[in-house]
Amino acid sequence: LVELFRLVASARLVAFALASITVPAFISAVSYTVLIFLVQQVLRLGTAGVGIFAGILAVGMIGGAGLMGLVPQNIDRARTVIAIILLYGTLFLIGRWLITLWFMVLVALVAGVAFSWLNIIQSTLLQEEVPAEIRGRIFSTREFITNAVFLISTLFIGTVGDLTSCKTALTVIGAILILLGIAGSLWLRGIRTRPEG
Fold it and tell me: What are the two backbone dihedrals, phi and then psi, of residue 21, each rounded to the nearest 5 degrees?
């Protein structure tokens, strides 16, 4: 953790990459709380429905990994992360009015592709920006942060859902993600985010 704080203090792009890894953990927490409830209870698809949607999500992740192989290497990785976070936020915000089977299938596919891209880009950013001698410690700290964020997010989202409703929880989740996307965009101002060449 000490190594992490030292690096973050001197490298804003690394700080951005490490901050952005909280988003997949947050999305996973949403899946375990709100989305499973929507599939099982609201759409009345039960446990089998959850399995089907997990399969659709996996198809999206496989497709996303394949598509990433076709993307030019000089893609602006950090701003792609911002775009994905804003996409997630938008899907959750409009999702409160579109809790239907077709929309949930679409969200599962898009979310799978986006989740795959997020993980690939974040790992690539850290590999490129973190010095080799401390890379292992930074990656192990990343796992610590991911699990801590997942735990805290699950408790927070579950509490919001219990005290209000799943639709309110979707609105809160969407708003948080959009605010994170805007904050990340402001953080990137003046930072080189596109690889040379």
Answer: -70, -10
List Cβ neighbours of 191 (8 Å cut-off, separation of 6 or more).
12, 13, 16, 78
pLDDT in tens, 5-33: 777 777 788 888 888 888 889 988 888 88
Q: Confirm whether pTM is higher than 0.85.
A: yes
∠ CA(5), CA(10), CA(11), 5° rounding?
95
> How far is residue 30 CA from its own chain's centroid?
10
Three-state helix/strand/coil letters over the chain: CHHHHHHHHHCHHHHHHHHHCHHHHHHHHHHHHHHHHHHHHHCCCHHHHHHHHHHHHHHHHHHHHHHHCCCCCCCCHHHHHHHHHHHHHHHHHHHCCCCCHHHHHHHHHHHHHHHHHHHHHHHHHHHHHCCHHHHHHHHHHHHHHHHHHHHHHHHHHHHHHHHCCHHHHHHHHHHHHHHHHHHHHHHCCCCCCCCCC
How far from 58 is each of 3, 76, 111, 156, CA to CA, in Å? 35, 25, 10, 26
- Give tens-digit pLDDT for 151-190: 999 998 888 888 888 888 899 999 999 999 999 898 888 7
Euclidean distance between CA atoms 192 and 129, whole angstroms: 11
